[in-house]
Every structure is written in C-alpha cells, then in structure tokens.
Fold each of these.
Amino acid sequence: MSASIEIAGVSKVYDGGVRAVDAVAMDIRQGEFFSLLGPSGCGKTTTLRMIAGFETPSSGAIRVDGADITHVPAHKRDMGMVFQNYALFPHRTVAENVAFGLRMRGLDKATITAKVKAALAMVELSGLEDRRPAQLSGGQQQRVALARAIVIAPRVLLCDEPLGALDKKLRQQMQFELKQLQKKLGLTLVFVTHDQEEALAMSDRIAVMNGGRVEQVGTPTEIYNQPTTRFVADFIGDTNIFRGERTTTSTVASALDVGKGLILALPPTEGQGTGVLSVALRPEKIRLITRTDAATAAGSSAHGIVENTNFLGGAVLYRVTLESAHRVLVQQPNAGTSRLFVPGDGVTLEWTPADLVVLKD
Ligand SMILES: Nc1ncnc2c1ncn2[C@@H]1O[C@H](COP(=O)(O)OP(=O)(O)O)[C@@H](O)[C@H]1O
Ligand SMILES: [Mg+2]
C-alpha cells in the first residue's frame, strides 16, 4: 500500500554552513506523482535524500502516513530509490541486480525468482535476466534500476533525475512508461528534475524550488497558468514579465504603467490600487496581426516590429520590439491559414487583460 508524506518545516544545513534546504513544507498525497522542480543547487536532491533517510534534517520533521520517521534509518523506510547514474552492480547480471533488495530481506530462492521475473516483465525486460549492465543500452539500464526499486513493493518510490542521461526520444518514451507504471501500481512517487517540460508532462503536482525554498506547489496547469512569483513565471516556459506603477486612465480603471507610453490594463479581478507591480503574459496569449492603422485598444494592444523569428515546427516564436521599446515574445500556432511574419514586418499585438498574471516578487 502506498503512503502519504508530510514534510513539516524541514531545513538542512550541511557541515560548513550551506543551508541547502530552508524551512520546506509540503504534503505529498498517497498515490500521487509529485515532482520537485528547480535549477541546479536549489536543494532537490537534499530534500529527496532526507525523505529516503540518507540525510538527517537539521530541523523539522518528516511523517509517512502520519508517523514521524525523521530518525528511522533508510533501510527501514520501505522506500525504493532510482538514481540518475543507475548505480547498478556492474559485475552482476540483470536478475542479480534486481534480486538485491529481496536477498537483503532474506526471502527464499523460489520467491525471489518469481518476484524478479514479474518486475522485469513490468519494465519490459523479460529475457534479459542473464545480461550484465554493460551489455544493455542506457534506457535498458534505467529499466533495471526501476525494476530493482519496485521489486520490493515499496510504499514510496523516489527518483532523482532518473531520465537525465537519456536522449530526447528515449526520454519521452521512458516518461510515458514510468507514469503508466506508477499509475498501475498506485505508487506514491517523488520525482526530482530540473526539466520543466518533464515536470509538466508527468506530474500530478509540482513543487517549484529556488534557493532551498519552495516557491509554489500546484498542478502543472496551476504552475503554468497562475504562477504566483516572478521566479516561477520565469522558470516555467517562456514568458513576458512587465514591471510598473499602478495607475488609472480615462478608459481603463485599473492599469499598469510600464514606462515609455505602454499602459497595460490589469485583469478585471485586480481592483484599483497603487504601488509597484509585476505581471506575466505568456507568448501564446498574444495575437499577432498585420499592423493596422486603427487606434489600438487601450491597455490591451500595441504596435511593433518583428525583430526575429524562430520556427518551432508546430508554432512560430516571434521577438517583437514595441513602439515603447519593450521587447516581447509572441508565439503563434503554425496553422495553415495564418501567415508567417518575417523580420521587419509591422505588426499589431492584441491580448486579453484577464490573461495577465499578477506576481508576488
Ligand atoms: N554533502 C554536501 N555537503 C555540503 N554541501 C552540499 C552537500 N550536498 C549538497 N550540498 C549543497 O547544497 C545545495 C543544494 O544541493 P542539492 O540538494 O544537491 O541541489 P539540487 O539537487 O537541486 O541540484 C548546493 O549548494 C550544494 O552545493
Ligand atoms: Mg540534484
């Protein structure tokens, strides 16, 4: 049976004074695919190793199904772990590698053979029992590592950048397979990655980390559509961030003056106020049309010139310089009917004020 995990105000200060994890709090639900996402050095591995029991928190507590396990040794936690470098035993066969955890638990030979067989079938490696790791591809080695972790029927599976060494195609296939396996087994899975696309594609929920702290916890759509901080908006996908002073105009009650004549109407939900504010606007939320001479709608459109284009296949990314000199990214689908712009084209940008996301700094 899989478990829930509660991380309650956990900090980790390493010898030498590095505060790797700083007052992290989050609740991971039973059966959930939960990702820790953030740039290198933000404390993902340290957090995972504290859940696994390889590191002890300097303060705070970790609870599994409500029971405090902060000081329970790793081998008594019933957790499986998969590492980026696989950490397979090079001189042992696939079957021996997978059997390792079962032997440690003292199971009889027939049971071990049956469980190893079932685990290898689960990761689609049946028939490769007698190979050694060096005789396998990277993807197959990663599957062995996965089989070794799940064969003990852990309550929690912990994965530290497990797909980082694979090329893109294989990585996408393994993402799909790992997710299917996790759902099939009903496993609680904590997945560490610095790859935002991977986290968005795989997770039920994501914790975005920065400098040892959690910036935001949410579903992939929440994290992408409603980032709460500037860091999250910037780290997840491409985005345009504007910073300015709140103002009102004759036509717009609640707007942001971002300088050089550019005024952005704030979402209707914002209400009026004063002060400095940052907002994010995703490139695909902006419509790009051939420049019109008609006056632009107050607060939700602007004129500009295409500086350069980046053809992505299914979409085109444009960098546009506005008359206000702001540089803006615009993404348009590569639909059959819409024309593609080229550098130097005069364009008009239009957006919906409700698509602006107000950020905490
Ligand atoms: N054993 C250690 N001793 C001292 N500092 C460490 C140790 N492990 C990690 N750190 C430091 O803690 C911070 C977080 O590291 P880590 O958890 O590995 O981040 P991530 O996995 O997000 O890249 C980094 O500044 C790193 O250099
Ligand atoms: Mg790491």
Note: Residues 62 and 70 are 5 Å apart (CA to CA).
Amino acid sequence: MAGLYLHIPFCKSKCVYCGFYSTVNQKDIDKYISTLSEELTLRESEVTESVKTAYFGGGTPSLLQPSQLHQILDNLHDRFKIAPDAEMTIEANPEQLTPEYCKALKALGFNRLSIGVQSFHDDILRFLGRRHTAQEALDAIKNAHDAGFDNISIDLIYGVNERSNKQWCNELEKAFSIPIRHFSAYALTVEENSLLYRRIHQHKTVEPDEDLAARQYDILQEAAVRSPFMQYEVSNYAVKGWESKHNSAYWQRVPYLGFGPAAHSFDGTHRYWNAPTLATYFAQIAEKKTFYGHETLSKTDHYNEYLLLRLRTRSGIDLREMAQLFGQKRTDTLLRHFQTKVNPRHYEYTPGRLHLTAEGLWFADGIAGDCFLEH
Ligand code: SF4
C-alpha cells in the first residue's frame, strides 16, 4: 500500500489556472470532517498492512484549524496502522503559515510541508490569482523551517507570458537559496474548467506561449545542474534522499486509497473514484457507498500506464522488470522502437534500463503515447 490521500476541497478563492475540484463555500467544513470520518470508517478494512505515507491535498488543507486537522488525524490513526516513520505531508498556502500555525502542524505529526508558492514575483502572483505576496511566501518558508520542518517542498509555475526568462532565472536563484529540499515546477497549462480557459475564450487574455514554456524548461534544467536539486520526474526535483515517497509510489503504480470528493483509489487491478463534488460526495457516503465509479484495467491499460508513468521518471524503465510483467517480446519491441524512431538525444539505454534524458522528459507524454498499445 503506497498510502492514503485525503482531499480537502475548500479554497478561499479560485486561482486562474486551477482545474482541481474545490469550493469557495466554507460553510460545510465541519460537515465534511464528519463525513470524511465516516468514509474512513467505511473503508478501514481495505488496508491491513501499515501505511507508509499520508498526503493531505486540496483544495487548501491549511484552511482547516489545527483542531479540525487533529480530528481527522485521530480518525486516521484509529482506522489505519500508520507506520511510525510514515511520510505525513500537508499542502499549505503561504498566507496561512504563521509561526503559530506551523508549530501546530508540526505538533500534529506532519513531517513534510508542500507550499503553494508558484512565484516570487507579485505581478505574476496577481496574474495567477494567488492570495499571497512574494514576501509572504518567503516568510512562510522561514516560519515552517523555524518550526522544525526540514522537509519542505514548494510549487512553482513557469511559462507564464508575463514573466521574462531573466525573471524566471532570478526566481530559480531565489528558490535555491532558501531552506527547501524539494520543489515541483509545472508549465502553465489551460485546464478546461479553469478561469484561465474562460478568459482565453472570452478574449480577455491569450494562451500561454508554448515556446516560452519550452525555453523556461531548458533554463530550469541548466539551473538545476548548478544546484543541489536533481530532477527525478518530469516536474519534480529533490536534494538526493528527499524525493517525495508518496508521489514516487504513485509512479511505481503501488496501490493507494483516496478519500474525499473527486479522490481516486487504485488497488493494483481496479481504479475507483469518489463522487466528484461535495454535494454528491455527501450523498455517496450517506448511502454508505465506498466508491462512486470504477473500472477494471485491461492488460493494455496496465502496459500503457506503466510506460507513461515510468517514462516520466528519470530512473525510467527497468527492462528486466518489464519483461517479467509484460513479456520479453514486448520489451524487445519497445527497445526497437526507441532505437529506430526516438531522437537519440531524448533517451539513454544502458543494459537493463531505458530512461529519458532531461531534454527527452519534456516530450515524455508524446514519446510514451507513440508506444501505446491500441485497445
Ligand atoms: S491552485 Fe490550490 S489554492 Fe488555488 S484554487 Fe486550486 S486548489 Fe485552491
């Protein structure tokens, strides 16, 4: 069991690029906490072994008071066997990370903090619809560090038209000078259900420039080489030994359970998903249903997912493992495809392992897609 994901679906306001499910209506927080507790109880028999990671994501988990988080954590410990050294992550927005709040999170048992910084420039933060300033982001990281968090990650967004390459370089220098061990950097994309999507279609703003995003990805690679951070997945960078255990397990396709609206679960053979909104989730749990929809993965689905997730990681595909899972013939076919169709600058093949280079990772989804099996 990889771990547990708990979705906290509340936000103060919607950021322009966001496609995650969350609501700005906070009146149901208490009802949500008790419904979540019912879901944890309903599903406690789904995990018998000890849990290695728990991840509070959102939404904005840091909107919850320490007493509310305490309630959820108590339930979690009552229902599941959480390993004493489990990675316990909570996502937080900078404006909530006061010294007192950071100390409370530490006292509750969280040992990893993922902070939604996105940028160290106020203009960019305003464009993205974030509620914090650059200074608040820096203060938040300091407060977390002072409270004893040594495992801090931040999120950054690049490929924003309003930001020059020079500004992006400066932001990276800033990120490398603060006490973090991990960062995730995402190119700005236009999610269909986001405000950005609507604004583009109303001609109020323009699409993000793909060439700019590609150039800023290159700048990131050049800067990362001079930093203590190593890229271990398309969008994730860590000081060696500080990679996210929770996300790494997803990419290894280890089973996990997801709780709350719009959360997904995977048991190695099936994917399950919860009701997509708070209202439908309340109804789902009131009817004591442990999932809202599910699918059984076919052999082809397994193969395609395996390929996609592994090729997005820097360690890539262990060819011996692949042969065991999908057969030697399929493995040889994949190797032949790479040797004849894929740009040699985009991958490396060492006996027993096939992985994409930093340059190739930018094209990971396309390279994997070209190798997919048809249903
Ligand atoms: S990006 Fe995070 S804080 Fe912003 S709306 Fe989405 S979930 Fe909420």
Note: The pocket of iron/sulfur cluster is lined by residues 11, 14-15, 18, 20, 22, 58-60, 93, 116 (CB under 6 Å).
Amino acid sequence: MTAAVADAVAAVDYDHFVTELDGSTLPQSSSIASIQRMLEDLDVRPGHRVLEIGTGSGYTAGLLANLVGPSGLVRSVEVFADLVPRAQARLEAAGVTTVTVSNRDGYAGDPVGAPYDRVVAWATPHVIPSSWIDQIARDAVIVAPAKVAELATAHAIVAITVTDGRPRIVAVRSGGYIEMHPEPVTVFGLPLRYVAASHAPDDAEPWWISSLAPREVPGALGLVLDWLRSAPDVSDTPLEAAEELDDFRAWLYATVPAELATAGLSDRFTSIGAANEDGAAFLTDSELVTSDDADAARTLTGWIEEWREAGRPGWSDIPGALVPGVEGWEVRLTLQLAHGG
Ligand SMILES: C[S@@+](CC[C@H](N)C(=O)[O-])C[C@H]1O[C@@H](n2cnc3c(N)ncnc32)[C@H](O)[C@@H]1O
C-alpha cells in the first residue's frame, strides 16, 4: 500500500460510516481491501479535484477528502436519495468539509466541479460514460469497475488515462462492484442487465443464466436453467489446484466473449462456462455443474485445453482496450493487443 493510502485508511474510521443505528452494516458498503487497491491506481494527490460515483456510506468520500487535503475538493454523486443526507451527516460529524454529496445519476458525471483530476466509481457502468471523459482535466486518471463482455457479472477494474482526448486503459485487474443503475435499487442478487433466463425465489438466492449465444427456440435457456435447478450433475472442477479460475475467466472474456455464458446458481454464487439450447456446463470455484448435455461440457473442456496450451494467461497478461460505442466507451479484453501493440 502506498504511504498516502495507508495514512488515509488509518485516519478515517470505517465503522463510523458503515454502521447503521441498529448496529448492522449498510448494504451499500465496499470492502476496505478492494477500496485500497483502487485508490492506489487512482494516485490522488493533495489539491486534486475528484469526482466520486456512488457515495454509499460516505467512507470512500472521507478517504478521498483525506488524500486531496484542504486545498482539494471531492464531488460525490449517489443515485439513492436517502443515502445523500446520511453520508453528508457522517462526513460532517467526522470533520470533513471538502466533500459535496449530491443526488445524481453518475452516468452524467457532475459538470459543476469539472474539470476533474481524478474520477473513481464504486458501481459498474455497462460502458465508461462519455461524460466522465468530457469532465476531466489534462493527465487525469479514471479508475472504475467496467463490463468486459455483454454478460452478467463479466466485470473488471480498469485504470484509464486520456491523451489528446483519447482514453486508454493502463491497467486491468480482477474485481467488480454492483451494477450502476439510473434509479435506486434495493434488491441485490439478480443482475440488472444481460440475463437471458432467471428464477428468483423469495427465500433463496436467485438462479440466472446470461448468454449471447443465438437461440432458435424461445425459452430454451429457461428450460436449461430449470434442469440445472432440479437435476444438476455435479463433479469436482477439472481445473488443477494451481490453476486459477479467475485467470481462466479473463482468458474466456478475451477469447470467446460471444460464445461464453455466466450463471448465478443460487448459493453456488457466480459461475462461468458454456450454454446452448440443450444444456450447460458451468465452473464454480470447486465444482463442475452440468445439465444433461455433453456438448456444452465438451465446449468448456476445449476452452480449458486451449488456455493450458497458451500457458494459462490471466489478468496480469491480458490487456484491455476501449472501443467507442453509442453511450460511451466499451471495455474489452484482447489478446491481440498483447502481440500486435
Ligand atoms: C458499493 S456502493 C459504494 C460504497 C462506497 N464507496 C462506500 O464507501 O460506502 C455503490 C453505490 O453506488 C450507487 N450507485 C449505483 N448506481 C449509481 C448511479 N447511476 N449513480 C450514482 N450512484 C450510483 C449505489 O446506490 C451505491 O450506494
């Protein structure tokens, strides 16, 4: 950890911000370890102007205020109106005077404080909004979670710099945050975008499948999901102990984003694999979960073999690229850049 981030973490009381009056933890809080990693990439200096997307508890706004010091400023935007006065009150009680919190949709940034030296987001946009690029100063840095494929939970953390108006990814890391949403949401668990079929019982974690594979039979993935819920075939993961599922994920996002599928298998949490109209095969941290179809399992096994042949590249080997889109910049992982520059 850099000395500046370590000093900020030591100076700002996490519990003061995240603890509710009844002693519970605010659901919109982030883990300190993940916050620290992102703040290191952000490299905030005294006097900087910082835009924060997703105030939540106000804890990270407190850290940013500490990092910019008395000569800097922090503008923090939060879509959930109730959290704004809560965060403001906690910041005031902690003696912080350089943060302004407002109830805004972070997709539009906050032009009032522009140009910003740093932009940091704690919720995942489906594209990097053009407004963030438009509102930054020369040599600015943006650190944000981002979608790396049009699949639910296909997230990474990216650091972006802008040269002559053109943004460029300088670091891609594993990680992710809740999806950004233009309206407040209070139900967590079921992804907001890219879900092809789902089942969300009241008393358990939801089931869902996300896949871009073309489907000729309407509702086919719903039937596949029903099969996974009722009669899954569960065996040990085919990955060896030294093989990281997280690195394999990065490889899949880079090489087969259009054929890939992700799934939420209730309490098995998020998994990745292959799905077609007749079945699916998904890897979790320790298991292979399949439905009654050998094709999907064969596809997944083939991807594992290709990954091994390529030397098991992972997050630190696979660069990211920004692709201009209609609403902003799409983030993609690409092996071509690694070879072709
Ligand atoms: C992981 S929490 C932030 C935690 C915060 N960094 C902290 O220290 O407590 C993500 C926050 O982003 C907010 N959010 C989601 N979509 C948003 C949007 N479009 N604009 C602004 N805030 C948004 C959520 O309401 C939530 O409070």
Note: Residues 197-309 form one domain.
